[in-house]
Amino acid sequence: MHRYDCQNLYMALHGWAMHEKESGVIKNIKLAARKPGQKTTIIDVNGIRVGEGLIIIAGPCSVETERQTIETAIAVKNAGAHMLRGGAFKPRTSPYAFQGLGLKGLKILDKARKETGLPVVTEVVDTRDVSWVGEYADVLQIGARNMQNFSLLREAGKSGKPILLKRGMYSTLEEWLNCAEYILAEGNPNVILCERGIRTFETYTRNTLDLSMIPAVKRESHLPILIDPSHGTGLLSFIEPMSLAAVAAGANGLEIEVHIDPASALSDKEQQLTVPMFESLMNKLRKLRAFMDEPEMSSALQENMDTPIEKSAAQKNDSQDPISPLPGAFSEAVD
Amino acid sequence: MHRYDCQNLYMALHGWAMHEKESGVIKNIKLAARKPGQKTTIIDVNGIRVGEGLIIIAGPCSVETERQTIETAIAVKNAGAHMLRGGAFKPRTSPYAFQGLGLKGLKILDKARKETGLPVVTEVVDTRDVSWVGEYADVLQIGARNMQNFSLLREAGKSGKPILLKRGMYSTLEEWLNCAEYILAEGNPNVILCERGIRTFETYTRNTLDLSMIPAVKRESHLPILIDPSHGTGLLSFIEPMSLAAVAAGANGLEIEVHIDPASALSDKEQQLTVPMFESLMNKLRKLRAFMDEPEMSSALQENMDTPIEKSAAQKNDSQDPISPLPGAFSEAVD
Amino acid sequence: MHRYDCQNLYMALHGWAMHEKESGVIKNIKLAARKPGQKTTIIDVNGIRVGEGLIIIAGPCSVETERQTIETAIAVKNAGAHMLRGGAFKPRTSPYAFQGLGLKGLKILDKARKETGLPVVTEVVDTRDVSWVGEYADVLQIGARNMQNFSLLREAGKSGKPILLKRGMYSTLEEWLNCAEYILAEGNPNVILCERGIRTFETYTRNTLDLSMIPAVKRESHLPILIDPSHGTGLLSFIEPMSLAAVAAGANGLEIEVHIDPASALSDKEQQLTVPMFESLMNKLRKLRAFMDEPEMSSALQENMDTPIEKSAAQKNDSQDPISPLPGAFSEAVD
Amino acid sequence: MHRYDCQNLYMALHGWAMHEKESGVIKNIKLAARKPGQKTTIIDVNGIRVGEGLIIIAGPCSVETERQTIETAIAVKNAGAHMLRGGAFKPRTSPYAFQGLGLKGLKILDKARKETGLPVVTEVVDTRDVSWVGEYADVLQIGARNMQNFSLLREAGKSGKPILLKRGMYSTLEEWLNCAEYILAEGNPNVILCERGIRTFETYTRNTLDLSMIPAVKRESHLPILIDPSHGTGLLSFIEPMSLAAVAAGANGLEIEVHIDPASALSDKEQQLTVPMFESLMNKLRKLRAFMDEPEMSSALQENMDTPIEKSAAQKNDSQDPISPLPGAFSEAVD
Questions:
Q1: Fewest CB within 10 angstroms: B85, B207, C152, C314, which?
Q2: Contact (CB<8Å) D125/B150
Q3: Do D276 and C233 touch (CB under 8 A)?
């Protein structure tokens, strides 16, 4: 036993943890709350296990053409992405902005999936669309502006499909987890959370990407947490550093906008990576995640302070045995 | 030349970068602005070079007793910290809260410096104190609440001492860099910036730590940028993940609160690390920084998009030769 | 001509107005924008003319029982309210909170309307409900959390019903007016705006009621603007002063929560007025509005700086003649 | 006894007030807190009684020239202003912006006072300046950016001068009242509060003027509360409606920027009223305040819910007799 661990154990036994604000302070959540000892829930999307390792969802902001979508899909697949994103229904500030291709866009996504095998993540914006959009999508995304569209949350819950629930740009952790609770309460356990930046007084970045939600969600909920650095910053050159930061902080994945020709994009021109940028980024993300999974670094990815630390994704593949509570106690004091 | 680099060069030459909002949009800054090709300024503090590698400033929130301060100083020194922090003048919300030991505190810090060799960082809160506090401190800290105390900034400028300028909890990047400009305009080039969290609607964390300021400062200014995860989150178990995130995003350093016995602290009980926690964290930070300095990861630490990328700190030690602009052009397209 | 007016005319002619940020800066709005010289649009709701005089919408937060709703309706009618509010579908943070009576609630509202003659304002939260809820409601309310539920806005537009569009708690004026544009663009000109407080760092009040939206909406849009002081403050004793302030600033009306027995309410217990409080408030509101309509005060209610001032509601009843542009020019310089 | 009053008494006796969040929730304030039954403190400034009636402080943003200052002073005096404002030390975002005339400006203000008899309100920004600036000023203003400059607050407290303490643009009510406490704790009871707008996500207005601070301060503190609509909105045409709103909500006064020639001003060009605009506004403010002081309206100006209502300023001049607690009890239920 290392000297640190001895001291940590001493600390843990003598209650220093009492000085931190307690976890479990989020009101009203039952199904979304992490119970003591509970592991992060794995959401299985056609074999992709969200909550394990680092899952990358990539693709264009909007589905614009078959060529644009399929070429981007192939490129992100080749670069190592696990799922394809692409909006067929686009919530836009102005009614006169491009609103997405709708059904036509969904059919293009379907082709892209067939072409690449990548599961498709796409946004749904209307309660009436949940069931039929669900036939084209593998994951239904609920966007920031609809986070508290409670009717849509319930319908998403009834669908049973995996739901990617973005944090509202004005929403507290408590409100966000309560929105997850709406979905879970309908009997759908497949909720993936995604932080995408909040609205603050700072206008230099498009939003203020709140990476503290990574440890916050891990502490309060068993649901996996992704980060969207594209909307979270709105600035191309910020996507790499903020993505790396998210991985270092323990995010379960990233959702990143990639376009084969950003200059021609119909939306979010300024924040979509080119394919070469994405390839370069993927290379670094993989390396960093592997590094973070090394035993000496791994407590950075631990789930929360109150529960035995989970083994990292890399370790999980080797063994599904429950880990003993004692090492968890050591790690608790460190984090 | 790798395939990526070819594509990146193509991209760079064909102007995709035009689609990102331009850098150089911060109004009125002349001395604080990064000129094209300009490297990050190194601030030398008794031989500690802030702006190179990863600089860790650690120590108690407040100087409380000689024993507490010196024991903490020795412990953080042994764990690898580069400077000692400790408040002798504490800005507190209430006039009835502990306000710091004042001169007595400064004398304790002086002893701690002699004991450990660590340069001392301490806050100054009054124009009348700048010169004499400057005789005890190696770095004068200007706190978030005084960021726009322009008289204090000018006095700090006149002192010539290295200044650690925290971002106000309500301040935009533009305001922050203009405050740096106040100091620089007095002829003092030694300004270190430190992000410590901004005030938002989210109350789960004490503040919202805005890590996007790391790439933002690198893009707009040549001044080094540190992160304070202690005030930035206010939650003990968030300090490790947010510190690692800051390093991955390319921060030039961290300022972290450490106390030999947090439970007995007179301020910020809930966010000061114990010594064993800090030792464990330092271990990970060092490893992560070394990993980030590897050539394949290093563009994550590059300075900004418009200038040739600097070699990482690790590389700098080997060679001070200017690097050619061409590889910079390649990297630009990636970030 | 008074001396002031001479000077004002001089000022107007010599361009001082150039020093104010121009109106007309809201992007993308066509139908919602106030054209030069355009008067405030009057929305007719069963003979109640919103946009003229001071319109009071009052009633319980939620429809709970027939007795509660009808007694409150009679009481607010007797006190001088123009319309009845009451929620049958309640958007709630938690899925486990009271969600409203739904259809049963709408039937109760229908009875209350028959009993009192008051038009009914009630919220709609689902695109699937717009048409049938519209058969029970005289005005469909779109709540703050659904302000950017664009599908719902379009459906509301198609319904042709008068729509009360609340400002999102996180929404800029520009986003809000663009949401009105969504409704108008579907061919429905009957949009009433309602400010209900925004989310800020201040937690003393439930929200921060932004009364500057009164002159802001008047300057940028021809749509009438109401204020909701109940949600806007969340504090019973703040409703009177903020309501009076709204009237003094020129609001076209107020939406106020009133309950015959707030202590027993199933939602918003702390911010619903009792009937006697509402009666007392109505008395003051009427007096204040009559005072504000006096000629010497009336420019406070003028529409915007760029257009001839409208006569106050009181004056309008006497004459529908267009007013000459000259007095408008005088007043412009004053406001 | 009116029917309303009977019902209100009934309500008061039966505890409805229990449903409102309690007052007295502000932590740590002792001297700034309103005790049960305590009246608003009157701050006497050369015979001007702040806290009684409606006090108007007017004048230029900055003292620029003797002619500009004295002409403006005469004009605002003639229009009915009670005090003259004017900055000799200007806190500016950029070090290269006009910083004020300093001592020369103070001497000009002194002349303007001699010319008009108006007490002078001017900002102090440095602890070293408090005593000597206090020899020129009748009221020392502490600006928003220095609200938590605790050294300056203490020095202001020691000076014994009346202090106008602006709310920080990022400060909660609790922090603001604790800053007042800093001054009061030094033995200086002469603190006047002034709301000047907070920073939010909305950029249409320069700040978001938070008029709910009027009832909030009245509920929690005995100190008088003024409103600054010039900085609070930053838009010329918003000053009239927001000033009227402030009076209707019960503000003890206003601080308004007026300039004889705004177009030539060295700071805040866009928000300074011309003299004719100010004259017109003063005319309306006086009328509105007289109207609000009529017995039927006066509870709108009452101090807080927990204490017997004070008679309005107009009534006070006629009689200094304490009023009986019973009418207060009635009024409580109304507010």
A1: C314
A2: yes
A3: no
